[in-house]
Amino acid sequence: MLKYSRIVGTGSHLPEKVLTNKDLEQMVETSDEWIRERTGIGERRIAAKGETTVDLAVPAARRAMQAAGVDPDEIDLIVFGTTTPDQVFPNCGALLQDRLGIRNCPAFSVEAACSSFIYALSVADKFIKLGDAKCALVIGAETLSRIVDWSDRSTAILFGDGAGAVVLKPADEAGIISTHLHTDGFYKDLLYCPVGPSKGFHPDEQGRIPAYIHMAGNEVFKIAVKSLGAIVDETLAANGLDKSAIDWLIPHQANIRIIQATAKKLEMSMDKVIVTVEQHGNTSAASVPMALDAGVRDGRVKRGDLILLEAFGGGLTWGSALIRY
Ligand code: COA
Predict the structure, then answer these.
(1) How many C-beta atoms surround the C-beta of residue 166 within 10 A?
(2) In sequence order, which ranges of 79-216 are alpha helices (DSSP H)?
(3) What would the pLDDT profile of 165-215 be if each residue is shown by its tens digit?
(4) 235 lines ligand 1 (CB under 6 A)
(5) Residue 18 and residue 44: Cα distance in Å, rounded?
(6) Sheet bearing 248-251, strands edge to edge
(7) Which of 51, 67, 168, 237 could form a disulfide with 136 if both were Cys (CB 3.0 to 4.6 A apart)?
(8) Phi, psi dihedrals of residue 12, rounded to the nearest 5°
(9) 80 pLDDT higher than 60
(10) Contact 9, 70 (CB under 8 A)
(11) Measured from the CB, is residue 152 less than 6 Å from ligand 1?
(12) Is residue 239 annotated as a catalytic residue, yes or no?
């Protein structure tokens, strides 16, 4: 049995259309200043009409495969993290498999809201560790703009679209050192989208189909800070490490204040944190692999660096991965 899986390539992709805070000022009662101060977000990207989650995932996956030097026929597992699938089925992994010309490998999606990529990475890591896969494509991709209520200023300012990808291969040395996953369904009513094929698409009191994100922002904020602080401790303790050992924090890009709180917990200066939230807001499952790709491509993240990835989202779900890049 091989001991570790290792990230051998990263990639990301954003849709073309930019929606700035100034644009949002025309849509809801808000201001660029308020949004920047409370969230750190400057703009977000919005998928074009008809552009789907898988459409965004295709270039991200190709870039990761190119960086890894891997051909489509080498991929023997696809795990696709998303909350906004193109359709009910086939799953986004299967749709991506077809688009990339990959034949006959297991391909499935994992849905854990903004934590979906960390969950997908954890699943793929286990396949590789057990010898059930030798070259895995792990995706985090979203078109969250499709489930945003653009008349609700408390959520419309936060979210955007994008895709990130990594390729994993077996290695004798770490690699992915450990992953830690949590869910507390007790908090299901703090962050949710209440429609689906089974529950139905019933109109609300205003006669609208409520197919959009509902969020108790303040409560989610507090639980996110607490849970991410705890998972940092859990990850360090599980590996007998001191916080000073971490070279880079690559957090879910939801809100700069949540990111700063986690960095503070790690006693890390912000120049050791990869921050991309200003450029694209909260892209849910895409956020961590896009931030990792940004750090790798601009040369900050180097081979051998010890990196803590973490994410938090609806469920509530949260998770971390400690990796030696
Ligand atoms: N523009 C201007 N004012 C706004 C606003 C906006 N876009 N959204 C809310 N406000 C107002 C509120 O109505 C409130 O006004 P009031 O005091 O007159 O009632 C005031 O600003 C403060 O609202 P509050 O919700 O307490 O603000 P906040 O500091 O908690 O910031 C969030 C709101 C949404 C930015 C913040 O709660 C947050 O980031 N939560 C976590 C969200 C998140 O990351 N979710 C995803 C996790 S994956």
Answers:
(1) 31
(2) 92-100, 116-129, 153-156
(3) 999 999 999 999 999 999 999 999 999 999 999 999 999 888 989 999 999
(4) no
(5) 6
(6) 176-183, 317-324, 306-313, 248-251
(7) 168
(8) -155, 165
(9) yes
(10) yes
(11) no
(12) no
Give residue 2's pLDDT band: very low, low, confident or very high (50, 70, 90). low
Give the integer Cα–Cα distance in Å for 148 and 180. Answer: 29
Average pLDDT of the residues in 115-133: 97
Choice among 105, 114, 135, 193 that is catalytic? 114
Q: Report the C-alpha gap between 224 and 149 in whole angstroms.
A: 22
Q: Among 13, 92, 105, 252, which one carries the catalytic annotation?
A: 252
Residues 212-225: tens digit of each pLDDT: 999 999 999 999 99
Could you tell me which residues come within 8 angstroms of residue 151 by beta carbon, excluding any fewer than 6 positions away? 27, 28
Instruction: Determine whether the shortest distance from the Cβ of 30 to ligand 1 is under 6 A.
Output: yes
pLDDT tens string 24-70: 999 999 999 999 999 999 999 999 999 999 999 999 999 999 999 99
CA of 52 to the centre of ligand 1 (A): 28
Which residue is associated with the tokens 């870039």?
A: 63
Which residues have C-beta within 8 Å of that of residue 295, sequence separation ≥ 6?
Answer: 248, 250, 274, 301
| Residue to substitute in 159, 221, 228 for testing ligand 1 pocket (most ligand atoms within 8 angstroms of CB) | 221
Residues in the chain: 325
Nearest to 81 by CA among 283, 235, 245, 247: 283
Binning pLDDT at 50, 70 and 90, where does residue 280 land?
very high
Which position has the token pair 């077809």?
98
Place of tokens 């644009």: 23
- 246: Cα separation from own chain's centroid: 20
Choosing from 25, 27, 38, 191 the residue with most ligand 1 atoms within 8 A of its CB, the one to mutate for a pocket test is 38
